[in-house]
Amino acid sequence: MFAITSRRGWWYVLSLALIVPGVVALLTGGLKPGIDFTGGSLVQLRFEQDITQQAIQATAVDAGYPGATVQLTEDRGALVRTPPLDVEAKDALVDAILERSGPGQELSFSTIGPVVGAELTRAAAIGVAVASVLILLYVMWAFRRMERPVVLGLAAIGALLHDALFILGLFAMLGHVVGVQVDALFVTAILTVIGFSVNDTIVVFDRIRENRQRHLRLPDAQRPNFEQTVNFSANQSLTRSLNTSLTAVLVLLALIVLGGPTIRLFVVALAAGFLIGTYSSIFAASSALVSWDRRDVPRIWERFRSKLTLVR
Amino acid sequence: MRRRQSVTLALIAVVFGFALYVSLPGTPGLPIEVAGRDLSDLRFRQGLDLQGGLHVRFQASPPPDQQLQDGDMDAVKRIIENRVNALGVAEPLIQIEGDNRLIVELPGVEDPEEAIRVFRQTGQLLVINTGFEFIDEGTLLPADPSQTVLRGRDLRDARVGFDSLGAPMIEFDLQPDAANRFQTYTASHLNEVLTITVDEVVISSARIEAAIRDSGVIRGSFTADEARNVAIQLRYGALPVPLEVVETLSVRPTLGQESLQASLRAGVVGALLVLFFMVAFYRVPGLVAAAALIVYASVVFAVFKLIPVTLTLSGLAGFILSVGVAVDANILIFERTREELRAGRAIRGAIESGFNRAWPSIRDSNISTLIICAVLFGFGSGGVRGFAVTLAIGVAVSMFSAITVSRNLLRLTIAWPVLTRPRLFGAGATPGSDT
């Protein structure tokens, strides 16, 4: 059996290490909304010979789109993002690019008008809000028969915020470093990850409830304390959680490697979410329960205050 | 007990057989109709991003001095339908969305730009002399300049009126210069038939009953609403309101094919990895889970075809993800079984209690995923919905396959004593087995 909950300090440090850089990236505007939200056009091109990002970028700027961004994909492909274009303007831009960097062909073209973008943004915001409320209600319902349902619920919500924040931060960092933009599918990935994160946490907490009931029936001398029960339950869930996220990550990896560039970032967000979700349910959420039981926060605060008074 | 089990197994076999029959490519389908849907055509519905094509969302944007009226969108839809039909696209989808939007989807279109141009062009109104022949409404009548009497720009106004018997008719006024021309023409062509077309599609044929100068009427067998629509088309020669493109997606069929191939390859490789892992880790039950996964995949495919679900790229991703998640229920059950085995229980009891004790976890944990899918379906559009639908179907079917199917297959398997050694259940020394 692994000592999970007794090392909870380390898990908190690890969680902070995973989340803080992302939060910094978020606060410095790293999360870049894509055309789904801002409105704009996306042209996917494929060329017959090697191309450079700079050449295409320069062509787009010359054609009157100084804000255009160009991203190269495998198979000599390129994604060009511009403000909303109509078909004629897009044709002119594609012709200009192909003339300089061609031969090649246009594979797909999409335009989202600013009105639709604003609608999508609103729908995404409402969707996230509704999902949060429903998940909150569900967590309360799922833990209704457990000891301390509020604490368990808070820990589960904490775990899902932990996971959502990690992915948001990861994509904010990717936004800073390689200019990754987020779209409606990114929001989908976040919500899906939240769903599975709650799923994982419920499985672990269900185990805690079951073991706790069994342990409470034992004679006093043999009865494990709350921390031991939690640690034992986390260990029991360990193989299951690892295996489940392993099978999910296996299929997602297959999609990342073989599935083509169109939905790759979506799948990356999902895979990252599954990994962090497994970690948070086993390590962070169970540790939080023990911290609550052991009154870690008041204790540390007390120690900190007494040191302060000593210094004074 | 034995008898009940045989019945369950037989039912599973029937479900699997049926699902396999439905899901195999090129299946002849079922010669029945359910809820107005003909089940003899069971092809996969592919979204635009997989089969290529064009999706355009228009929004009516009336000029400041004009308001959108009831029926305007219906007229717009009809006109766009005519233009799309002229393009000869198979299975176009044209639908009104909300109060002022129109969605047009043209699957498989090779040249999206051409299509956009065709249905954004201003409709061309022509009045053609067709001799003595009445031509049915909706017929395609190519423009013939030598027989063209009037064009859209010659018209000043058109509106619905009623004759003395109360039958609806269309009254029109001509521009002054056209009026003179038209009077001369109609005076010399009495009793011949004039046919009105918009975008080369016949709207109405009418006999010249008298010389017409600056205004006239068109009679026909139409209702007041139809008359109004024709009047609208005559008045504007085209759309009753200008349309603005607010969203476009065009995908070349070649890219769609590539995406489909790539997703299928990823799906097969992913599923094989999962099967391999399950067998390697859980041995005999792993094999059973692998078999259940095959049942799972065919049932899910069958459901996709029967509903039918339009598969998009993200929808396929949802399905592929569900393959990885579908074994979660099996993993929960087998982990329980292993614990029971290590605690010294007999194999049969260990399996049964593994299933029974894992069920609440499986149920509770899947509900949260289904909640999220419902929200995604409610607030999302396009690809987001596709993902939500396939993932939700996958999760729902996985409860059946991981529990009913694998439980009964496992019961069947352990009838062979050789297969019941704990080692074959992967119950070696692993952590988490002390209390």
Characterize this entry briefly.
The complex is a heterodimer of chains A (312) and B (435). Chain A is built from ten helices and six strands.
Stated plainly, the CATH topology of the largest domain in chain A is called: Multidrug efflux transporter AcrB transmembrane fold
> Largest sheet of chain B, if any?
4 strands, antiparallel
* Strand composition percent of chain B: 15-25%
Poorly predicted runs of chain A are none
By CATH, the superfamily of the largest domain in chain A comes out as Multidrug efflux transporter AcrB transmembrane domain
Strand order of the largest sheet of chain B: 5-6-4-14
Low-confidence parts of chain B lasting 5 or more residues at pLDDT below 50? Answer: 429-435
Question: In the CATH scheme, what's the topology name of the largest domain in chain B?
Answer: Multidrug efflux transporter AcrB transmembrane fold
Estimate the helix proportion of chain A, in percent: over 70%
At the first level of CATH, the class of the largest domain in chain B is Mainly Alpha
Topology of this protein?
The complex is a heterodimer of chains A (312) and B (435).
Chain A: H1 8-27, E1 32-33, H2 35-38, E2 40-47, H3 53-62, E3 69-73, E4 77-82, H4 87-101, E5 104-112, H5 114-142, H6 149-178, E6 181-182, H7 184-216, H8 226-258, H9 264-293, H10 296-311
Parallel strand pairs in A: 1-6
Antiparallel strand pairs in A: 2-4, 2-5, 3-4
Helix pairs in contact in A: 1-6, 1-9, 3-4, 5-7, 6-7, 6-9, 7-8, 7-9, 8-9
Chain B: H1 2-23, E1 33-34, E2 37-38, E3 45-46, H2 48-51, E4 53-60, H3 72-87, E5 93-97, E6 101-107, H4 112-120, E7 125-129, E8 148-151, E9 155-162, E10 168-174, H5 176-188, E11 193-198, E12 201-207, E13 215-218, H6 224-236, E14 243-251, H7 253-306, E15 310-311, H8 313-342, H9 347-379, H10 383-413
Parallel strand pairs in B: 3-15
Antiparallel strand pairs in B: 1-2, 4-6, 4-14, 5-6, 7-8, 7-11, 9-10, 10-13, 11-12
Helix pairs in contact in B: 1-7, 1-10, 7-8, 7-10, 8-9, 8-10, 9-10
